[in-house]
Design brief:
The complex is a heterodimer of chains A (340) and B (279). With 340 residues, chain A is of the alpha/beta class. Chain A folds into two domains: 5-233, P-loop containing nucleotide triphosphate hydrolases (Rossmann fold, 3-Layer(aba) Sandwich), CATH 3.40.50.300; 243-312, Alpha-Beta Plaits (2-Layer Sandwich). Chain A has helices at 55-62, 84-88, 107-116, 122-136, 151-164, 181-197, 210-216, 234-239, 260-263, 292-301, 316-324, 328-333; strands at 5-19, 26-40, 44-48, 70-75, 78-79, 91-95, 169-173, 202-207, 219-224, 227-232, 245-251, 268-275, 280-286, 306-311. Chain A has a six-stranded mixed beta sheet, sandwiched between helices. The two termini of chain A are 38 Å apart. Chain B is mainly alpha-helical and 279 residues long. Chain B has one domain. In chain B, 76% of the residues lie in helices and 0% in strands. Chain B contains twelve helices and no strands. The radius of gyration of chain B is 20 Å and the shape is elongated. Chain B starts with 10 loop residues before the first helix and ends in an 8-residue tail after the last helix. The chains are: A alpha/beta (340), B mainly alpha (279). The interface between A and B is large, with 50 and 42 residues.
Chain lengths: 340, 279
């Protein structure tokens, strides 16, 4: 791997001013603060965080769509705010759930149109479109109007649009959003192949799917409430948790017992509660295995039956829980501010 | 998996490719969406018919019928500029296309020019159909004094009009849903001010002069003078003066579009208004 930074940010921040309807003054929303990252050429880098964490804001800044309020960022060696034309010649972006293109045009026509904006000759554009449509399994829909495509097929078209221009740096913002399991797997495989094929390429992927980040990314930055909380390889992030014991316990309903009572036990680092149908799933991150005894005692003293108990290896979800104090699911359901 | 791209065009070649790329959906859309025949030919013809019957009822000069038919045809261009140029960037923002245009190496002026050329081409076909049907229905006779002048006036009128559309498209870049209301608001007053259905000479001089900022006003007036025998007597200014003003308007609007587009893009990037609300 060439030790050259393809994406670099330093103390990057963005504050949105939101006009209040009733008051005649603006409210400030900190979407991103003090983000300093260095992404190597050839790297598939993941930004992992719940909705509203600041992932899309960061992508918008890096793709020249949004000016940072503080700090600076460089992409492919150019400043994203001052050298926008140079940056744009080296990048492309695909967002999950986007409905770009024109419904009246066929898949092939839409892709050809976007190829023109990148200066690709018609003949070469059609060759690349044909190849890519085959790779993503969309060949039979090449002459279908894009308005007639399902969400999944449409996203495959978007993926082709992004890769077709062979960008030096590609930004994928939740690329598998709305895709079914099979289509997501195909897209993930394709992305990995693309980056492995030419180590001069760089890919920044945002996702709130842990598996996606874990399976695909060389390195991952965990982001929440606009701040990068940790950044390393998925293996290293998980290894840091290995001294701790992680248990998954399925129990009968908690009978009103809150998770805080477990949290107060010495040695219990984090507890996450996933309520189920007639049963509850509890995940414990303990400083050591011996703490499990007091957890079990507390459950039995509260007349809560243990239905299943297993120890498991740490995942990125556990890393997130350890860093944030709540699961990503809980964080998304909390007061995380919506992006303007 | 994929070979590298042999060569990517830059500079003027990229500019021209972008124009062709963006014009394509406009041209092809007309062939795929046949409903335009009803909405953009039959409905304008109804308005034309109403004015024709009024003029005939009050025994207005017969040229007025021709004026109305030509005006009715030109409304297609105004509708196109208003709904498919000015407010277009708002719709592009909502679908996510705008962000993709901005992050591409293509120049936004080329994107707007592509929109304009594609729209102009598609609308010219509609306008011609309206003139043909209207002329046949109401037995309009033409006496073109100079085809070259007529072509020149038409081209200048279109350049200035679509230049204005490009300029206002830049302004709409910052707008959200209110873009639709503004477009709605601008539609009818322009019908009146531009004299789509009557010669603007009927206005007070300064009112007609103020209305002349809309390129269709003078373009339509000059064309009427060139295609009807008594057109000159009903014209607002002489054709050479109107041609001169149209040249100035073309330069002002195209330059304005370029300057304003760059400014508005910078502003939209500062304020975070280039992407749809949900992102």
């Amino acid at each position: 791997m060439v030790s050259e930074l393809s994406i670099q940010t330093e103390q990057l921040g963005r504050i949105y001013k939101i006009r209040e309807k009733k008051k005649n003054e603006a409210r400030q929303l900190v979407a991103l603060q003090n983000v300093s990252l260095g992404i190597q050429r050839g790297e598939l880098f993941g930004l992992l965080g719940p909705n509203g964490a600041g992932k899309t804001t960061l992508i918008k800044i890096l793709t020249t769509l949004l000016a940072p309020t503080t700090g600076w960022a460089r992409v492919a060696g150019f400043d994203v705010h001052r050298e926008t034309d140079q940056v744009r010649a080296h990048i492309n972006m695909v967002s999950g759930g986007e409905s770009s293109g024109y419904g009246l045009l066929t898949v092939r026509e839409n892709l050809w149109m976007f190829a023109q904006f990148y200066g690709i000759g018609s003949k070469e554009a059609h060759q690349r479109i044909t190849t890519l449509l085959e790779i993503v399994g969309l060949s039979d829909r090449a002459n279908t109007k894009s308005s007639d495509l399902s969400t999944g097929l449409r996203q495959k078209m978007n993926i082709v649009r992004g890769f077709m221009t062979d960008p030096e740096v590609l930004f994928l913002d939740e690329p598998t959003l709305g895709l079914d399991v099979g289509a997501s797997r195909d897209v993930r495989q394709f992305i990995r192949r693309w980056i492995d094929e030419d180590r001069g390429r760089t890919l920044l992927l945002t996702t709130h799917y842990m598996v996606e980040a874990e399976e695909m990314c060389d390195r991952v930055a965990i982001i929440n409430k606009g701040q990068v909380l940790a950044c390393d390889t998925p293996a290293t992030l998980k290894r840091n948790l290995q001294s701790e014991a992680i248990f998954q316990i399925e129990v009968s309903p908690l009978n009103g017992m809150g998770t805080h009572v477990f949290q107060e036990l010495p040695g219990v680092q984090k507890v996450v509660h996933h309520p189920g149908d007639g049963r509850s799933n509890l995940e414990f991150i303990l400083t050591e295995e011996a703490v499990l005894g007091s957890v079990v005692n507390l459950l039995t003293s509260g007349n809560i039956r243990i239905l299943n108990l297993q120890k498991r290896e740490p995942t990125l979800e556990d890393v997130f829980v350890t860093l944030v104090g709540r699961s990503m699911e809980e964080e998304e359901g909390s007061d995380a501010p919506p992006h303007p | 998996m994929l070979p590298p791209i042999r060569k990517k065009s830059t500079g003027w070649r990229l500019f021209l490719r972008t124009i062709a790329g963006r014009a394509y959906p406009r041209v092809i859309g007309q062939q795929r969406e046949k409903s335009w025949m009803f909405f953009e030919i039959f409905l304008p013809l109804l308005s034309v018919a109403a004015y024709v019957f009024v003029y005939r009822a009050i025994h207005a000069p017969e040229e007025y019928v021709g004026f109305v038919v030509v005006g009715g045809a030109m409304t297609a261009f105004w509708m196109n500029v208003l709904w498919s140029m000015s407010s277009q960037l708002y719709w592009e923002k909502e679908t996510g296309n705008l962000a993709l245009y901005i992050i591409s190496p293509a120049h936004m002026m080329a994107v707007l020019l592509g929109m304009a050329l594609g729209g102009m081409l598609a609308t010219t076909i509609r306008a011609v159909v309206i003139i043909l049907i209207g002329s046949l229905l109401f037995q309009v006779s033409y006496a073109v004094s100079s085809f070259a002048s007529l072509l020149l006036v038409f081209i200048l009128c279109m350049t200035a009009l679509y230049g204005m559309g490009m300029m206002s498209a830049s302004l709409f870049l910052l707008l959200s849903r209110e873009a639709w209301h503004i477009a709605n608001l601008a539609q009818e007053p322009i019908y009146l001010a531009s004299g789509f259905y009557f010669p603007i000479k009927n206005f007070h001089f300064w009112v007609a002069a103020a209305a002349s900022i809309i390129p269709l006003t003078l373009g339509l007036d000059a064309m009427r003078q060139l295609v009807f025998p008594s057109g000159a007597s009903l014209g607002f200014l002489s054709v050479p003066i109107e041609v001169g003003v149209l040249v100035v308007l073309s330069v002002v609007f195209l330059t304005g579009a370029r300057v304003l587009l760059a400014h508005m893009e910078r502003l939209a990037i500062q304020e975070g208004r280039l992407t749809e609300a949900r992102r």
